[in-house]
From TrEMBL:
Organism: Hymenobacter cyanobacteriorum
Transmembrane segments: none
InterPro entries in alphabetical order: EgtD, EgtD_Methyltrsf_superfamily, MeTrfase_dom, MeTrfase_EgtD-like, SAM-dependent_MTases_sf
Sorted UniProt keywords: Methyltransferase, Transferase
Name of this protein: L-histidine N(Alpha)-methyltransferase
GO molecular function list: L-histidine N(alpha)-methyltransferase activity
Gene field: egtD
One GO process term, biological-process aspect: methylation
Span of domain Histidine-specific methyltransferase SAM-dependent: 9-315
């Protein structure tokens, strides 16, 4: 049993013993989940990707400069959750055009996604120095603490919204701890807007988001020897505008028992019982500034798309 599988087994055992039951969205991203998420990003309802692309197209040079790309000193550009790197390539091109002396270190838990990214970067940006890291965020953060030299850390795509309030603050503090005075963070925040648009982005008409959520059960069947019948489960999501939280669930449509060979246990689900699988919080600018201050960070620059749907925020240690 691999270390990753051991971690997954432990997480599932703990998460399904809770009331309500819950599993982390980090386990969505096996190779199949990563491919499904690429499809989600192209959906008409899913505005965050288009909005962040617009920011990078409009403000790419300014973002590169804010990250220290014109300072002349070598640095490492670390991206947590790199995926296919489509948006990041816009920034990489700006940094290369400015003759910035940097190494790109993409981090992703999916080996399949990483191999695809490295191949496309070699073909499209042959001058780019790339040091890929197939790790979890936690392991990557541990490496950041001991990494010498100046660094800029990217956490794009509104991934910060997947954390609950306490976890979010703890994560930002972990990011802030290894930062020197010249280091920078660039974090994507999905901003609050029409609640109907937000909800539709997480429950698309084609059912791709539902397949993405349900793929978690397929992964548990494969890696933990579970016996989920996906026909007995539904995807459900909703948005709470008071808290800014999108919450996604897997819903058991009938009473059923699920056996896990790897855990040597059986878990009972009542009819219409849920597994909470994902949060996706939305933010206001004052909330972002207050969160940064509480984490020991300060806002250096605040870039938005023309519609004000999304923000890429440059942060530094206070």
């Amino acid at each position: 049993m691999t270390t990753e599988l051991t971690d997954l087994a432990r997480h599932v055992a703990e998460g399904l013993a809770r009331n309500p039951k819950a599993l982390s969205s980090m386990y969505f991203y096996d190779d199949a989940g990563s491919r499904l998420f690429q499809q989600i990003m192209a959906l008409p309802e899913y505005y965050p990707t288009r909005a962040e692309f617009a920011i990078f197209r409009t403000h790419g040079a300014a973002i590169g400069a804010a990250l220290g790309g014109t300072a002349g000193e070598p640095f490492t550009l670390v991206e947590l959750g790199a995926g296919d790197g489509a948006k990041t390539k816009l920034l990489l091109r700006e940094l290369l055009a400015a003759n910035s002396d940097f190494t790109y270190a993409p981090v992703d838990i999916s080996a399949g996604a990483m191999s695809g990214l490295v191949a496309t970067l070699a073909a499209e940006l042959p001058a780019l120095r790339v040091v890929p890291v197939v790790e979890s965020y936690a392991d990557a953060l541990d490496q950041l603490r001991t990494q010498p030299g100046r660094k800029a850390v990217l956490f794009l795509g509104s991934n910060i919204g997947n954390f609950g309030p306490a976890e979010r603050l703890d994560f930002l503090r972990q990011l802030a701890t290894p930062l020197g005075a010249d280091d920078r963070l660039l974090i994507g925040f999905d901003l609050r807007k029409d609640p109907r648009r937000i909800r539709a982005a997480y429950d698309d008409a084609q059912g791709i988001t539902a397949a993405f959520n349900l793929n978690l059960l397929t992964r548990l069947n494969r890696e933990l020897g579970a016996d989920f019948d996906l026909a007995r489960w539904q995807h459900y999501t909703d948005y709470e505008p008071l808290t800014g939280a999108v919450r996604s669930f897997l819903v058991s449509t009938e009473a059923q028992n699920i056996h896990f060979e790897a855990l040597e246990t059986t878990v009972h689900f009542a009819a219409w019982e849920v597994i909470h699988t994902e949060n996706s919080y939305k933010f206001t600018r004052p909330q972002i500034e207050a969160l940064a201050a509480e984490a020991g960070l300060r806002v250096v620059d605040f870039f938005t798309d023309g519609a004000g749907d999304f923000a890429d925020v440059v942060l530094a240690a206070r």
